[in-house]
Design brief:
The complex is a heterodimer of chains A (about 110) and B (about 110). Chain A has no helices and eleven strands. With about 110 residues, chain A is mainly β. Chain A is globular. The termini of chain A are far apart. The model of chain B has no long low-confidence stretch (mean pLDDT about 90). Classes of the chains: A mainly beta (about 110), B mainly beta (about 110).
């Protein structure tokens, strides 16, 4: 079981470039999440998808878009990267209902120069 | 900003000490989760709490779901050097499955 897989693990972008961070889970989880973590900070919710076909904004959605491609995959897109988006991005998923333990990927370290 | 207030922000531990940290919110949550994160890794689940008043242990860790459903605490007993890391609380609301994290408690070893 791979759990939650994020790609890429590292990325450097120039200001204004676009890119998509990929996340896939093989645990048949219903809900998926994207967080960002800045140095010395907690995890701030960018977007989440409670179930396939739905997405909602979190605390810090500006500058990002998401797509819940299917039940397994939830992607995060930066249309025009800015230095303020330099961060570590984590994807997480959970089943929901009576099983609400969320599992995380290993993170994507993004630097925007 | 963060809806969950986690304290303390950091603490120093000496081997053998018991330590505790807590999380409070103005909102009610249906589930409380506690995670530990080590450098360069994603958070790893330590304990999940599902009912108000619930007290759950995982080895030397004990966590409680507050009766008001607006708070939770985590205790580490007889701390050891490998307990260093960042501990996060997270609250899940049943409606919409929104999962919100606290700011973290950084546990360090006393020099």
């Amino acid at each position: 079981n791979a759990g939650v897989t994020q790609t890429p693990k590292f990325q450097v972008l120039k200001t204004g470039q676009s890119m998509t961070l990929q996340c896939a889970q093989d645990m048949n989880h219903n809900s998926m999440y994207w967080y960002r973590q800045d140095p010395g900070m907690g995890l701030r919710l960018i977007y989440y998808s409670a179930s396939e076909g739905t997405t909602d904004k979190g605390e810090v959605p500006n500058g990002y878009n998401v797509s819940r491609l299917n039940k397994r995959e939830f992607s995060l897109r930066l249309e025009s990267a800015a230095p303020s988006q330099t961060s570590v991005y984590f994807c997480a998923s959970l089943y929901g209902s009576m099983n609400t333990e969320a599992f995380f990927g290993q993170g994507t370290r993004l630097t925007v120069v | 900003g963060q809806q969950l207030n986690q304290s303390p922000q950091s603490m120093f531990i000496q081997e053998g000490e018991d330590v505790s940290m807590n999380c409070t919110s103005s909102s009610i949550f249906n589930t409380w989760l506690w995670y530990k994160q080590e450098p360069g890794e994603g958070p790893v689940l330590l304990i999940a709490l599902y009912k108000a008043g619930e007290l759950t242990s995982n080895g030397r860790l004990t966590a409680q779901f507050g009766i008001t459903r607006k708070d939770s605490f985590l205790n580490i007993s007889a701390s050891i050097p490998s307990d260093v890391g960042i501990y996060f609380c997270a609250g899940l609301k049943a409606a919409g499955n929104k999962l919100t994290f606290g700011g973290g408690t950084r546990v360090l070893v006393k020099p």
